[in-house]
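User: Please fill in residues for this 77-position structure.
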């Protein structure tokens, strides 16, 4: 069986490019530091609202959502 694991490294790089670091992103957007950490570490998933908010905050066009939220690493188990 094959399962997909999402890779959020492009999203993390975008956060750092736009805000300097994750702490500043959270301070300026009001997003919880602990929740951001959980989402980037794949403990908690991104909701559709999260995706739209992050695109707004980071200036990500809708046509590029997949490049930040749906990059996968395929694992064979």
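Assistant: Residues filled in for all 77 positions:
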């Amino acid at each position: 069986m094959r399962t997909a694991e999402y890779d959020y490294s492009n999203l993390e790089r975008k956060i750092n490019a736009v805000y300097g670091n994750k702490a500043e992103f959270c301070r300026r957007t009001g997003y919880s530091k602990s929740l951001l950490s959980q989402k980037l570490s794949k403990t908690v998933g991104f909701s559709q609202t999260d995706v739209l908010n992050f695109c707004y905050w980071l200036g990500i066009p809708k046509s590029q959502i997949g490049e930040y939220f749906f990059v996968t690493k395929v694992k064979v188990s």
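For context: The chain has a mean pLDDT of 93.
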